[in-house]
Automatic annotation (TrEMBL):
Molecular function in Gene Ontology: aspartate kinase activity; ATP binding
PANTHER family to which the protein is assigned, alphabetical: ASPARTATE KINASE, ASPARTOKINASE
One example of a Gene Ontology biological process annotation: lysine biosynthetic process via diaminopimelate
Aspartokinase ACT domain residues: 91-147
InterPro entries on file: ACT-like_dom_sf, ACT_Aspartokinase
Keywords tagged on the record: ATP-binding, Kinase, Nucleotide-binding, Transferase
Protein name: aspartate kinase
Substrates-to-products reaction catalysed: L-aspartate + ATP = 4-phospho-L-aspartate + ADP
Family of this protein: Belongs to the aspartokinase family.
Coiled-coil segments: none
Entry's EC annotation: 2.7.2.4
């Protein structure tokens, strides 16, 4: 049985023009951690000369997040920072997923049929988490639950 849940109380942060350097990335996340912001999803896109890093956290961490991002802007002025609170996370989880083929394909197909944009995706052996527009969360949850009933 798959656990299907959503969280509409998140912030998605995009860091653009991040230097491709592990120490640089480590410093960014150390700064966020030092402000007691609990990060949930993290994904990165490696471009030719730079990286884009997306992450999510709870809206409860907004004040601390803003302080951390202000420090990051000061230390790393080349980084462009964007926040989006009009998002939700849906998560599909099951221990059986590690031996199942096509779970991601099924989820993406359901979302695609209903023209629900994928803003960010992270996976593990036993889960898929997707950030989608907030206004789509009810439809996404109902359609994914239909797929897995």
């Amino acid at each position: 049985m798959k656990l299907i849940e959503s969280d509409s109380h998140i912030i998605q942060v995009k860091l653009m023009n991040v230097e491709k350097n592990s120490l640089f990335v480590g410093d960014i996340f150390q700064t966020i951690s030092s402000m007691n912001v609990n990060i949930d999803m993290i994904s990165e896109v490696i471009l030719e000369d730079e990286m884009r890093i997306d992450f999510t956290c709870s809206q409860d961490d907004q004040k601390n997040l803003d302080e951390a991002l202000s420090l990051i802007r000061t230390k790393h002025p080349r980084i462009q920072i964007y926040q989006n609170r009009q998002v939700a996370k849906i998560k599909i989880e099951s221990d059986a997923m590690k031996d199942e083929v096509g779970v991601a394909a099924a989820v993406f197909t359901v979302l695609g049929k209903h023209q629900i944009p994928l803003l960010q995706v992270t996976t593990s052996e036993v889960s898929i988490s997707c950030v989608i527009p907030l206004e789509c969360v009810d439809l996404a949850m109902s359609e994914i639950k239909k797929e897995y009933k």
